[in-house]
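Why Cytoskeletal protein RodZ? Reviewers of the renewal asked for a concrete example.
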Amino acid sequence: MQTIGERLEEARKRKGISIREAAEHTKIRGDYLQKFEANSFDIDLPALYIRGFVRTYARYLELDPERLVSEVDATLVRDGKPARREQREPLGRVDFGAGEARSQESGETATSSQAARDKAMLLKFGLLGGGAIVVIVVVILLINVLFSSTPAKPVAAAEPPAPTVQADPAQTLTLTAVEATRVKVVQDFDGATLYNGALVKGETKSFKKQGKLLITVEAGKNLRMEVNGRSYPVPLDGYGRFALD
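Here is what the prediction returned.
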């Protein structure tokens, strides 16, 4: 006479199903199914669960589940496990395998939903963070553009070179006011001011000339210039500066 395990194994092989496929369909661990087919029910589980798993596996293999469960009860009694059958309710019996399957399916569905929510949340935070970084970069660039553009300094117009009057070096310069005017005389080589003031009509000022002199006059037409008694023309009529070599 075949044992419970032999009948289970024969029915599974007749259907061409592997232990792994049977475990996936029944939601019962593969090592439990292997023990059942080895006619070993010494599993660290309450007898109630063992009977429920055997019933589910027998139904999956299209065997008589109640007959197999009765034989399992006898085996459990022989092995020292309580064989009390579960109480039947008027509306039917409890299918532990199906219940476990529904529980696992519900858990997998909840896990998948939570994973989808987590991915959506991470994507949302990623988009917000990326947008914030772009805004910060744009603001920094605008600040750099606004504060780095300094107004161009106006280019000072170059002063025209002062007209030059050639005279003998190391001579005496005499300035005479034909009409009232102001005169400033500066020694070029050391920047010393020889005279800076007003000349009234007919007033004369004399200076020892050592090299080039820079002469600024308020009204050139009101000034007469001599070097060692030799007259030199003033090269401008109005206000200006000229050099006397």
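Residues 4-100 form a domain with the 434 Repressor (Amino-terminal Domain) fold (CATH 1.10.260.40). This is the kind of structural detail the renewal will allow us to pursue systematically.
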